[in-house]
């Protein structure tokens, strides 16, 4: 089981690197690039949408949302082009940057959500 999880994590990391290359390549369509930017920014963000310390739900984004986003993005990239990106990742070591704008967007999302919850609580409290 532990070996399978390590392989799964390695595969996700390789796919994110290939998507990073796809997002920077002019041959990738605009629709694919838009989704690629969202998926890669989320994957590289130092802040998760659902923090990992929340039991069970904290890992849902890592186990479901990220692979689903990768799947959708890959479907928008032509197969020969996708294989080219994967080959590039296998042949070279690509270092991915952290996405601080994505972290800021996720932090802003949580601040707005908490403010909305507080406003609703005050409304119903009376």
UniProtKB/TrEMBL annotation:
Keywords per UniProt: Membrane, Transmembrane, Transmembrane helix
Main location: membrane
Subcellular location: Endomembrane system
Annotated ranges, domain DUF1232: 32-68
Keyword field contains ATP-binding: no
Parts of the chain that traverse the membrane: 30-47, 100-121
A GO cellular component annotation in the UniProt record: endomembrane system
Pfam families cross-referenced by the UniProt entry: DUF1232
Keyword Kinase in annotation: no
Membrane topology annotation: Multi-pass membrane protein
Protein name: DUF1232 domain-containing protein
Organism lineage: Bacteria, Pseudomonadati, Pseudomonadota, Gammaproteobacteria, Cellvibrionales
